[in-house]
Amino acid sequence: MAWADELRRVHARLREALELAYDGDSDLDTEKELLLYCRGFCAALDGHHRSEDATLFPAIVAARPDLAPIIATLSQDHSMIDHLIAGLRLALDAGISAEEKRRHLDGIGAVMETHFRFEEKKLIEVLEASALLDLGDEPTRVLGAISAP
Prior knowledge:
By secondary structure, the protein is mostly helical. The protein has five helices and no strands.
């Protein structure tokens, strides 16, 4: 498994999901359908981070203890993003306006993009040498359901 490529692919899919959450598809008939994209994005991002925290990050720290501070920073980012997602979910349940939804997504998107860039910068080299990592061969277990083809 080329884990570095898989991580990049998952990040690209999450960026695409964020764009759908912003704009939806021109074929959408109702705001309700657009909200499904928004909720789907939140679930995908949350699942990706939970999988990293449970599987990928412990494997990296086991193979490369020197990266523990970086993993701690990435996990802290996950907590911040979880908080932002929870706020968006509450706001969606309250029936927010499109402008309010956009502000929530702007915040999530900004933190997400910074997080992804830092993660790729710091972990791609380790993932390219993935023979050092005990990850198995199930991308959904390591990177979340968004990694499924």
